Amino acid sequence: MKEKFSIRNRIRGFGYALEGMYYFFISTQNIPIYLIAVAGVVVFGFYCDLNSQEWLWIITAAFLMFIAEIFNSAIEKVVDKASPEKSELAKRSKDMAAAGVLMTSILSIIIAVFIFYPHIIDLM
């Protein structure tokens, strides 16, 4: 039977998402690295006086990195719970989740190069 729409359930779901985000930020090792990198990009972006379209790409890249890492962390936790013993399938699953983070990192770097390269040339 399908559950009826409820504002209370939507708010509760939003609360769960915030709990998940909080847990992600306090429990993920790479968060300080991401935050420092994002802060550096934002400072440099203001220095280069990026336009709104360039900021949109920078913000998208930053959020994609966090989203990829959230999914990677969630997959790792589920795999660890489902397969506490070493298994090739568990390893492959975790490796593929990590590959998603790596690909997102590469995409973010490509976006940054396309955006900042002309500004760096202008500064020289």
SSE order and pairing:
Layout: H1 7-27, H2 31-47, H3 52-82, H4 88-123
Helix pairs in contact: 2-3, 3-4
> Uncertain regions: pLDDT < 50 for 5+ in a row?
none
CATH architecture call: Orthogonal Bundle
Oligomeric category: single chain
Order of helices and strands: HHHH
Mean pLDDT: 94
Beta-strand residue percentage: under 5%
Distance between the termini: 65 Å
The main sheet comes to: none
The whole-angstrom Rg is: 19 Å
Apparent shape: extended
Helix content: over 70%
Number of strands: 0
CATH fold description: Helix Hairpins
Summarize the structure.
With 124 residues, the protein is mainly α. It has helices at residues 7-27, 31-47, 52-82, 88-123. The longest helix has 36 residues, at 88-123.
